[in-house]
Amino acid sequence: MTEHPGFGAMLAWLLDHRGLIAQELADRAGATAEEVRAVLAGKSPSEVLLRRLAPALGFHAVDLFILAGWAVPDDLAPLDAAAAKWAASMVTDTVRLPEAGRCELLRLIRSLPQEERRSSFAPKPLVPLARGPGAWVIRMLQYRNLNWMGMARALAFVTPTYLSASTYGLIGSGRKELTPRLVTDFAALLGITAGELAALTGVFLREVPPTPSPEAMDAAVLLWEARRLSADQARHVSELARSLRGDLRCHRP
Length: 253
Description:
mainly alpha; about 60% helix
């Protein structure tokens, strides 16, 4: 699948999969049924409609913008691109903590004050400029402040996928095909249902994918919440996660 199927086709599949009709989705999104039906018929969704549809569908708005082929607005992007240096280590250290430790880190992230945005977020371009399914999932991960090396580290710790950093660039540029295994593991880290991500990207899953591990689900939430952190805040959280791991090792009999 190399051609974009159109956001309307994706939305139609989601509605059918969830047993919804256009009017029900419109009511949930605070939109009109005519707006939703126009998108289903092939009209490009407006920015306002995408923002409204996201919570109604249980998606993050940034992911719908990417699936629709739209540029992601600055206010939906990570606060500080420099925080990518710490994003993967936050995941790799946090997932090795017991559940209580993971919850503690998440509470900390949510409690930190929101700092001002100092620059626009510009993820690394995908070469060649691809619009296919590989580009969509890599873009989603980039907008969780993971660079290629961060993707390699995070996925290796929370899923069975172990790839080199450069391979993620190949996936994003369409030179490496998305496989059922990759889609399942990407979905776990993105916090998206594997079956839905597979359908949206045109990948056939021969088997029902297993439920992600609690560590993978916590990693997905942590990555999403950490998007609002500055680099200094992300470094602080990462160092705390590492120190908690050290304390745990010291107290083991």
